[in-house]
Amino acid sequence: KIEIIGDEMHIFYLLIQKEAENYGVLVHSIWNGRETRSSKLSDIVMMPYVNDHYTINIDYGQNISLLFITEEGTRETTLNYCCYKDREWSRIKRLYSIKGQDIAFGMLSDQKYVHILNKHREQGRYYLDHVRFGQSDDIQKFKVYESAQVLEEPLCFRKKGRLYACWLEENKIFYSVFDS
Question: pLDDT tens-digit profile of 114-123?
Answer without folding.
Answer: 899 999 999 9
